[in-house]
Amino acid sequence: MTDYTKQIHRCFRCGYCKFPSDYSDFNCPSYARFRFDTYSTSGRLWLIYAWLKGEIEWSEHLAEILYSCTTCKNCVEQCPMKFSSDIVDWIVAARSDMMEKEKGRIPPRVTSFLEDVYRLGNPLKERGKRDAWANGIKRYQPGDEYLFYVGCLGSYDEFGRRMARSVARLLSEAGISFGILGNDENCCGNEVYLLGEKELFQVLAERNIQKFKELGVKKVVTLSPHAYNAMKNNYPLVSNAYFEVSHYTQLLCGLLRENKIRPSRNKIKVTYHDPCFLGRYNKIYGEPREVLQSIPGIELLEMERNRENSFCCGGGSGNFVTDLLGGSEESPSRIRVREAYETGADILAVACPSCMTMLQDAVKVENLESKLAVKDISQVVAESL
Ligand code: SF4
Ligand code: SF4
């Protein structure tokens, strides 16, 4: 990428990036939440530009605005300019600069996130074993086909653990040889990278890559699209070690095509929420839907905003922990579960542990718990076996 300080002035605040392609609603989660132009894509870019030129000074508020971007890339899809693919890279570069030039004066919740990853290997303040959820799922051994990379939420979060167990069950049913890293696993670093802490990201990536090398890992399957994104797109910036990486929905899709998993008839209505790091970041829209549609009797109901227009749950860029967007009726996760409910579906299917935790909280606050069940795709499949 060209030096962002020489590019960022190119945004001329036309505002096209504020809307999905049919102009039906606001699509930037932080703008939808706060409704001030400074929290929109262009507002943020212009604030960064003014700070670079010395026209405004650093303030806590400026730092919060910069970090309230969930890096969802919805603006990247909607901005009609040639530079659009660089927008999130500019925001991430400005975060790195702010850490350096302002001597680390970033929002305290972001500092705490990064310190916890550095000290504990996860942002969730967990000190326990990473494999306490595993209950008999074995460690990876040389010769296993796949390393199942579970990640921080899969290791420690109640809902993430359920997802990890469910994916592991399906892989076992299909006869796949796989294992986990257990306590040898490290945070993938995806959020650390996006928060602008590139040095810490490098340390985390190197640790994971080193472990993969020691064990002779050739194929990694991830629970989280965030880990998938980090390993697919950012680890090659750190090392040229080769290993194939897939998200579990891609692997399940292949196993279903080969009839290694055979769901039975299940008459359910499901809507699917595209995670940003699977969809917009990696263009994986088809496989998760194919997995769901392989269940005979299922009815897949699309939300108004889907695929590249999908509305972020608000959890990206570490916000599932830092919660810089805070709670309100206009919180992205609450907006999203209302959209899901409007489809008439009984199940809101997700493919990401961050989306899972954000949307589980939102259905409770919206009093939709008894009407809309948030389930991982693997859980929907497992319940249909
Ligand atoms: S980012 Fe692109 S679409 Fe958005 S205001 Fe700037 S130029 Fe317009
Ligand atoms: S990446 Fe998402 S949150 Fe960030 S400015 Fe663009 S639309 Fe808004």
List keywords for this structure.
385 residues; alpha/beta; Rossmann fold; 3 domains; four-stranded parallel sheet; binds iron/sulfur cluster
What would you call the shape? globular
Radius of gyration: 20 Å
Question: What average pLDDT do the residues reach?
Answer: 95
Strand elements, count: 8
Ligands and ions found: iron/sulfur cluster
Structural domain count: 3
Number of helices: 17
How does CATH name the architecture of the largest domain? 3-Layer(aba) Sandwich
Helical fraction equals 40-55%
Order of helices and strands: HHHHHHEHHEHHEHEHEHEHHEHEH
Annotate the secondary structure layout.
Layout: H1 29-34, H2 41-52, H3 60-67, H4 74-78, H5 87-101, H6 108-120, E1 146-149, H7 151-156, H8 158-173, E2 178-179, H9 190-194, H10 198-215, E3 219-222, H11 225-234, E4 244-247, H12 248-257, E5 269-272, H13 286-293, E6 299-300, H14 319-322, H15 332-342, E7 347-350, H16 353-365, E8 373-376, H17 377-382
Parallel strand pairs: 1-2, 1-3, 3-4, 5-6, 5-7, 7-8
Short description:
The chain is α/β, with parallel strands linked by helices. The protein is built from 17 helices and eight strands.
